[in-house]
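Fold this complex.
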Amino acid sequence: MAELTKELSQMAHPNEQAPEPEASGAAAAGAPETAAPTVIVDDLHIVYRVYGAASAAQKGNAANALMRIIKRQGRPQMKEVHAVKGVSFIARHGDAIGIIGRNGSGKSTLLRAIAGLLPPHKGSVYTDGQPSLLGVNAALMKELTGERNIVLGCYAMGMSPTQVRERYEEIVEFSGIGEFVQFPMSTYSSGMGARLRFAIASAKAHNVLLIDEALATGDRDFKRKSQERIHQMRKEAGTVFLVAHNLDVIEETCNRVIWLHKGQIKMDGDPATVLAAYNS
Ligand SMILES: Nc1ncnc2c1ncn2[C@@H]1O[C@H](COP(=O)(O)OP(=O)(O)OP(=O)(O)O)[C@@H](O)[C@H]1O
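Structure:
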């Protein structure tokens, strides 16, 4: 608690997404402890409510269905999925944090919660500025051309028309989509879409950039370019979170790895140590 209070007071503009920090086991690795914190996650719990669903024990069983009819109960209405269970950590300027874990371990949920897209069931997320989430499904419009998406995407990130004009060619060049920039995004392969999204999102310096698997679909050349850009963004004093199943990308890009298992942190530390434990 004392550590968290101190860290919070260091944050320039904490973007408080939930009240009252509570007790914490937050630990830092990666960037030096003197670097300013950019994200504080304190005992975070995220619960999804799925309406119209039922647990395996409640449904698909004739005896259960008969009992519900006898008791005049309707279909079970709601199921809760406790996707993140008491996660705490502190991220700092200059950190590139890889988040690894099996399918369904809570990686994407954690990123979406840091981005402020999911309300905490319990606990808090504090961020320095508005984090930008760059996901496989990031909101570009499929029916518009790459060109229109670049312009709109840059405006959405708060760039001025002059800044958009200055950066436009570089974004097209970086994405490598060539003449397809004049075609609607619905004609793009998933790799081309992912490259364009990354090129747009990384055209601006972000305090906190959250990347969800966006590098997974790029080819080798693009992966190398995007890794270089992530390194550059870290130098510009930002913090990058990266969810990827490709552990090579994590190892080459990140200075810290958080391993999630069933919604909890199993390990948080330097990539060599965490990846060795994860692979064993
Ligand atoms: N919108 C949702 N509604 C209900 N449950 C969800 C929803 N999104 C995710 N979940 C559940 O939350 C848990 C964590 O999912 P999440 O997508 O965060 O995991 P992940 O580690 O990113 O998985 P993957 O590696 O497969 O992408 C899973 O049990 C998943 O079924």
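Residues 16 and 126 are 5 Å apart (CA to CA).
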